[in-house]
Amino acid sequence: MKIENFQKLFYPKSVAVIGATKNPKKMGFHALNSLVKTFKGKIYAVNPNYDEILGVKAYRSVKDLPETPDLAILAVPRDAIYNSVRELLEKGCRAFVIISAGFREAEIADGEELHKKLKELVDSYNAVVIGPNTFGMVNLKADLNASFTPALSLLKKGDIALISQSGGVCHLIAPYSMREGIGFSKIVGLGNRLNVDFHDMLEYLKDDKETKSIALYIEGIDEPKKLCEKIREVSRVKPVVAMKAGRFEKADKASKSHTGSMAGNYKLYVSALKQHGAVIAEDLIELVSFAKALAMQKPMKGDRVAVISLVAGLGMVASDYCELKGLKLAKFTEETQKQIYEILPPYTIRDNPIDLGFVANDTKTCGEVIELAVGDENVDGAVINYIFSWSEEFLEVPTKAIIKASKEKPLTMCLNYPPGFWDDVKEELESNGIPVFSTPEIAAKSLWALREYDKRVRE
Amino acid sequence: MKIENFQKLFYPKSVAVIGATKNPKKMGFHALNSLVKTFKGKIYAVNPNYDEILGVKAYRSVKDLPETPDLAILAVPRDAIYNSVRELLEKGCRAFVIISAGFREAEIADGEELHKKLKELVDSYNAVVIGPNTFGMVNLKADLNASFTPALSLLKKGDIALISQSGGVCHLIAPYSMREGIGFSKIVGLGNRLNVDFHDMLEYLKDDKETKSIALYIEGIDEPKKLCEKIREVSRVKPVVAMKAGRFEKADKASKSHTGSMAGNYKLYVSALKQHGAVIAEDLIELVSFAKALAMQKPMKGDRVAVISLVAGLGMVASDYCELKGLKLAKFTEETQKQIYEILPPYTIRDNPIDLGFVANDTKTCGEVIELAVGDENVDGAVINYIFSWSEEFLEVPTKAIIKASKEKPLTMCLNYPPGFWDDVKEELESNGIPVFSTPEIAAKSLWALREYDKRVRE
Known about the structure:
The structure is a homodimer. Chain A is α/β, with parallel strands linked by helices.
């Protein structure tokens, strides 16, 4: 029943913004603005002081709305939240985003009390609430921006669901992902997790056809057992990547004040998350990069890596990072090694890690070597490093061969180029399922994530 | 005397490309193309088969050149290198970039021999040679692109000199830096280091007024003692950041084939570089980020950090990374703490790490808190985290206060925003000496680099 209400939350036909306003200094303005810019369903504004806001008809109160909205976004003062939610529930609304703050995260006497009271109310209706104390959420594939930041609609549509306890972290990952071209299905800021916590989101996303991998940014955990059990269940269906903040005491303390729960013992939690099937990310770039690789590629079945690079330096860096994460540089079979020695001239490096530098503009040969190396029976996966040099006419990426090789084994790529130069190459590779990153380190670590996922779900 | 020739290398009035050609499948085409596009001095092409290439008059041989070029760029076949260089030396040329490969890095019988013979020749003239086996170098402030990649001229002019044993690494850092707006004075691919090695470059850059910090990407080290001594000397004058590849055996082995020297024991070398004054970077993003922070900010005199964030999540991540690197979250004095409690409402986090979330659009208050926290006598440096949310009208970065605070103590910033939204804000901050990064992790680690530099040069 709660799951049905998740459908209303993420795929509403109508949305009401309670506390919408013309004052651009208030959240209610931005929340309505986000909707107006992208949402194709019905939009209602509620505010007794206006007839119209941003071209949307405004109603005096929830009771005056001509229909029950599927989703209500609340940006009213904290003390008005309870009554607004009650009115909406009575009208039949079952999905809420509560942006307003001042609940159990705050140093206010009745914050905890108000949280409990509100939770009892919404639970009694089986309603779902994102927040309070959240920027909101976006469902990019439904053109739904239920947040106070219109610019989040600029994100690319994709297959990653990002579930975060911090809105700030979402606002950091979003522009990074815009620049890197990483796409999302849904981004949700859980805030104080009144009655939608990580485990609820995991349960919903398990069967969400628009999500291929799930990234979790976790500060505090209220119900570790439920979370771990759900990770075990969901990670068998699709990859779950988790980053846990609060490694040290100070950050840990900040978590309590932030969204109302202690971050707890870092090592203990991370080890539990891992044991239950999550791939652990150490930083925010890893979080989104691992989720990207896992959404695009199959798990890697062994530890043996081939590293093939246009230039030796990148190959060295990638090799170092593969080994740092516990992967092994593959020893090619004699047959493969012989063939590579026949194809490549002596200027190049013909052992693993392979350097194609001096045949760089011989696209056919580069492609052949890539296919040979990746296809070798001693190789379980590969990192391929290409960077732009010379000019587009001189240097061509052997995309066809890379795409063919990727059907054989999991692979990740580093492809970096001056703005505008190889966007089409990246597009071709990614539309064929090859995750492209900007540095050899993150390409290598993302290949490790493919291996780690395989290990986690088989333990 | 060698130093004088470095001036000709980096600030030539005339440049000749030996082996220039109209064939875009050859390096000689791209080397000339790079020059033609940006260089304002005299350009000569040498190739017996053409009268003109890319609008530049071509001469049949070096002997036919109407004047002695200050700098010669060689892209002739490997077997023609020795004679070309000899002719140029006899004509009076003393600075060379040798792009051609096939010397001691290659599995060719006489590679090592040719290397030695060429070295004896150029050394006898006190000439300087970048390469062989290099993409070349750029001196952005002289509009000199002496490389085979015209797009390197798109880099921003700045204060970092990047000296790399790998051209690939330069071609990776370049586009990253274009996107991040990181500027360089000079980028040099040392290649096989015929007679210009890291220690020679350090000696030259020590007095280079256009360089404020030096980034080294090192694979193998031929003369560790000379390098360490030069790092000790130069790091007392300006910061030196070093990244060492070849952490593991495989990468190490690749180094030999790459630019002709074994990478050697990673831990031993890194520890020696560090002891002599280098700040060690673990990856390529750290390398360029640390160099950026150190080019812009003063060293940090103690370990105590204030973390001030627009949103708590980023503050937690930054705090974790500060502590991971060994910095301590500062405990504010009672007076400062009291004042911050008076200024900030209870919804915010008023202890270190400070969260400004709920007063985000009160720019004046945010600025006051930043100045108070950074100015506190228990604070040695600060990380400030801002991300774009709501809209530009709603959220303003307190740039004036941040700039004022940065006069007191070293600080780094994380500022992230959708493409195009806050470019002017970043520009204002950076033109006032505040290094701005895209994630809280790298902002925190770069603050650590400011602390580490202080420690390294005082040990």
